[in-house]
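Input sequence (286 aa), recorded before submission:
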Amino acid sequence: MKYNFNGLRVSNRLIASTAFEYGRGHSFFENPWMWIWIKTGLSGISYFGAFITPTITVNEKIGNLKKSRPWTIIKIYPDKILNKKGWRNCGIDKFVNQKLPVLKRGEQKKTIVSIGALDSYLEIPLMLGRLNASKIAAVEINVSCHNVDLCFLSDFKVLQALFREARKASQHPLGIKLNFESDYITIAKIAQDEGINFLHAINTTIAYSESLGHCGMSSYKNKPKALKVISDLRRSGITIPIIGGSGIWKKRDFQDFENSGADLFSVSHQFLYFPPWLSILAKRVG
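Predicted structure, token format:
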């Protein structure tokens, strides 16, 4: 791999977040746009330094998504995308036994597995143990989703215990995904003190829709918030690598994120508009 960010090894600095689901791409019913571009070869894992899976939990979780009616939890507008997926995923056992093995060796090495706890932080070390034998790039712990009740993670003592036990349990580089609405500086400092390798800022921002209710918003309008979080983290003494994301659309955005303190860059909802453009950008970012 060309780059090594505190253990996270990538071929280039552009990270595709949830765009390729478990690596094979979303089904046609869930994301017909991405499915078509992958099939035509105009977009795919090979263009990116790494890709991040949907957040995986201990047990399979249906979430709010209905395959035949994806529009019931995703609303696409010209300037924003609202979603209320709710961590729909196959569960850790199925992921390890069925999803990872079908990926090529190079694709596995580009996989950052996102995991999340629903009932207890002790679910995190359990999943990390299941992943230890896998040849993946890293694991990212999601403590920032607006579509899942993560109230027990608002306790900083619990977060400290989570990060500490996670670091002991995992043989891979570990990352923490942050959101704008949390006390991200305190969380980041705890993560850095406990040996976490990198941070990912930011997740979606809180939004409200009459059809979806409270949900997460992805938009270029999130860029100022993402830049603020990254700048705040650097000014507060955070030195570990940061994946910056939310609001990246053009090459100038990468420079702005880098100037704020980001080392790598993530894109996600942009795949719903024109995936090949991101594949072109991946080559330019380096």
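Checked by second reader. The mean pLDDT is 88.
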